[in-house]
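Chain A, query sequence.
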Amino acid sequence: MKAIYCEGCGVELQSENKEKAGYLPKSAWNNEHVICQRCFRLKHYNEVQDVEFTDDDYLRMIHQISDTNCLVVKIVDIFDFNGSFISGLQRLTGSNPIILIGNKVDLLPKSTNRNKLIHWMKKTASDNGLKVQDVFLISAAKGQGFQEVEQAIEEKRKGQDVYVVGCTNVGKSTFINQLINRSSGVEDAITTSYFPGTTLGFIQIPLDDHSSLFDTPGVVNRSQIVHYVTDKDLKLITPKKEIKPKVYQLQDKQTLFFGGFARLDFERGMKQSFIGYFSNQLMIHRTKLVQADEFYEKHVGELLQPPSAKSLELLPPLVKQTVKIPHERTDIVIPGLGWVMIPEGGITITVHVPKGIHISIRKALI
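Chain A, predicted structure.
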């Protein structure tokens, strides 16, 4: 019998084992639109079921692209560029041309210089070994920037297939749903959610008689906090509206807590501003450095929330990294959470993040 694939996540459908990916009751095979039980429960009840795929399985699927002639559309989360950038993508996709798209531009403050951001994205991609043909800024959720992207895809694919790739939770499926909706009026054609790993196989959408657009499984980057929190906490740390920067005037020997997920200690330097760019729902607390350890032990999961008690069971212990900040506007980026901008620099800070999460330093974007 010819294999049939879930319209929601792309996995091959089967009715033999409820515990395996792609399970569909035999009674549902004749439905007009067939989706697996996992996608059905995710779509209607917001429940997510674990699957047997490993991180390497997703990478192997993406590597199949290197054997094709196509256009690759790489999507990153502007709010978490470093955490959502796939290292080694050029090796996975071969010599195929690549367009880089920054999603969730609607979350950045309106004062953001978009030309500067595009230039930074091009340079950062190049520094990471990825040669891109063009860069675009969009909001997949709101449909911003799609006219330019549609024109670029049509011009650069030259009649060939298009593969959309990206890390988990960057908005790939939302991006494709927006394209489908704009061209055919069909809404929510494929399954989307907050949860990592929603797409389990290649989902094929015909572009014409000879070529298709493919949604691919999200590549897992374990250096993002998203993989160590419950779905409830994930919704709190994932921005939904334009970020409202929070400004704190700190003297040395003071500490900022970002919920209970991370901590920044101002070790040495002149008094200055620290500007936080995080989800508006994430609580930030200030205290004295000398009592920060005790404060964390006493209040994590309660006053310092999120994380909830359930996320605390998943979250690795906090480890620290001390950094000297140069005399220039600098961002301290915590993958999957946000960043702190330090306008003047010339100071020493210590950042505490869950073990396995790697902070990065960059010239300020805003």
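Residues 66 and 95 are 7 Å apart (CA to CA). The two ends are 56 Å apart (CA to CA).
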